[in-house]
């Protein structure tokens, strides 16, 4: 049979289909494409007449040329009467899934601490109880799907998809280091395997309802969750960004958020109004030496609970009517109605241009206008308490 029949373009353009399929290069080498879009190099061969399959890693991490070299090396071993998979079995003996997961996620220093914590917590809670002590190479698609379906049955339709993705990354890492031969998570089609939940936008009050909300918040005094809720209003930041605000990010009247903490992974600069600076000073006086401006009530090395502001709004009568994230919608609506620069409004919301080069060099773009918009907005919010218009 002819060999080296594939091209890199064919490998690159291969798209996921309803069922897994193979692109053959000859000599037993083929690119296996999963329904979820994963691409893995595999070699089919026989030992003592029995069919075997070994993996060479995921494409494009392992190039077409690299896969061919690995195929040729395996063929040489077979011709010499050796089992090319024997060294792998020795290397991966005894590596448990939970050990592999810990090693992989501990090594992802390019990600924020909060993201890594979310991934490891999901695996520890939902995968490790039944699969954590299993040899990672012994886990099948059925094994993994059983655990994920249990999550889906609890209504965790979004979370289960994230968990599958985090587990898939562990298996990809294990394959590259020859601790595993297949990635069972890659063949699970989340669109068909799991349920769906209706998309819900973040609840937000109408502009005309802001005075009553501000009045109700004022009754909460200096409670941290109330100050945090006001801070969301004063900065138009996302709840996660505010929770993770650290003292080291504050630079005078600017809050410099590193890209690792942003939804779009781009640095962001937030002008701090006089009202926001007052909140920061209050939190500074309360500081117990931890890194976070809004720390957890119980541990200063952790941020405030992700639901603290939401629970506050529920308690004061705004359940289903308002969220911390909703301030972004309310603020941008107010600014657009007032006729402020639309581009400046978009920058305040961290909706940067899709041009990554332009975005990288314009982190402070429209800063004077953004500063003025936020200060005018905060002054307007204050005026609602005094009854001014």
Task: Give structural attributes.
four-stranded antiparallel beta sheet, alpha+beta, three-stranded antiparallel beta sheet, hpI Integrase, Chain A, 3 domains, single chain, about 400 residues, elongated, DNA polymerase, domain 1, 18 helices, Double Stranded RNA Binding Domain
Quick structural gist:
The chain has 18 helices and 7 strands. It has helices spanning 8-13, 64-79, 86-92, 97-106, 113-126, 128-131, 141-153, 157-176, 190-193, 210-218, 224-235, 239-243, 274-286, 308-318, 326-337, 342-348, 356-360, 367-386, and strands at 21-26, 29-33, 39-47, 50-58, 250-251, 254-257, 268-271. β5 and β6 (254-257) form a beta hairpin.
What is the averaged pLDDT score? 87
CATH homologous superfamily title of the largest domain: Intergrase catalytic core
Give the CATH architecture of the largest domain: Orthogonal Bundle
CATH class of the largest domain: Mainly Alpha
Distance between the termini: 82 Å
The main pleated sheet reads as:
4 strands, antiparallel
- Low-pLDDT regions: 354-362
Helix content: 40-55%
Overview of the molecule:
The chain is of the alpha+beta class and 389 residues long. It contains 18 helices and seven strands. It folds into three domains: 8-84, Double Stranded RNA Binding Domain; 97-193, Orthogonal Bundle (DNA polymerase, domain 1); 207-386, Intergrase catalytic core (hpI Integrase, Chain A, Orthogonal Bundle). The strands form two sheets. Strands 1-2-3-4 form a four-stranded antiparallel β-sheet. The protein has a three-stranded antiparallel β-sheet with strand order 5-6-7. A hairpin with a 2-residue loop joins β5 and β6 (254-257). α7 (141-153) runs antiparallel to α8 (157-176). The longest helix has 20 residues, at 157-176.
């Amino acid at each position: 049979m002819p060999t080296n029949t594939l091209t890199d373009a064919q490998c690159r353009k291969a798209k996921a289909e309803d069922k897994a399929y193979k692109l053959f290069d000859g000599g037993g080498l083929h690119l296996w494409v999963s329904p979820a879009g994963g691409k893995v190099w595999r070699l089919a061969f026989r030992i003592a007449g029995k069919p075997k399959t070994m993996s060479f890693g995921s494409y494009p991490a392992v190039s077409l040329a690299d896969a061919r070299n690995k195929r040729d090396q395996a063929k040489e071993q077979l011709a010499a009467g050796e089992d090319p998979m024997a060294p792998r079995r020795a290397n991966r003996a005894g590596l448990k899934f939970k050990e592999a997961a810990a090693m992989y996620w501990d090594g992802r220093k390019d990600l924020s601490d909060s993201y890594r914590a979310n991934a490891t917590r999901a695996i520890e809670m939902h995968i490790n109880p039944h699969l954590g002590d299993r040899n990672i190479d012994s886990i099948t698609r059925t094994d993994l799907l059983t655990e994920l379906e249990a999550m889906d049955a609890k209504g965790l339709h979004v979370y289960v998809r994230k968990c599958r993705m985090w587990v898939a990354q562990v298996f990809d890492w294990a394959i590259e280091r020859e601790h595993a031969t297949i990635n069972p998570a890659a063949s699970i089609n989340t669109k068909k395997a799991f349920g769906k939940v209706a998309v819900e936008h973040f609840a937000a009050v109408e502009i005309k309802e802001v005075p009553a909300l501000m009045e109700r918040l004022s009754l909460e005094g200096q409670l941290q969750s109330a100050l945090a809720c006001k801070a969301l209003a004063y900065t138009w930041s996302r709840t996660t960004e505010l929770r993770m605000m650290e003292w080291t990010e504050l630079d005078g009247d600017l809050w410099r958020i590193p890209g690792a903490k942003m939804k779009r992974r781009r640095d962001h600069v937030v002008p701090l109004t006089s009202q926001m600076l007052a909140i920061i000073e209050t939190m500074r006086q309360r500081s117990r030496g931890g890194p976070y401006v809004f720390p957890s009530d119980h541990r200063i090395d952790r941020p405030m609970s992700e639901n603290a502001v939401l629970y506050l709004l529920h308690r004061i009568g705004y359940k289903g009517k308002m969220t911390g994230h909703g301030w972004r919608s309310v603020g941008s609506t107010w600014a657009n109605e007032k006729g402020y620069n639309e581009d400046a409004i978009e920058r305040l919301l961290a909706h940067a241009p899709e041009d990554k080069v332009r975005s990288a060099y314009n982190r402070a773009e429209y800063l004077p206008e953004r500063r003025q918009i936020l200060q005018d907005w905060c002054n307007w919010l204050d005026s609602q308490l005094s009854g001014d218009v």
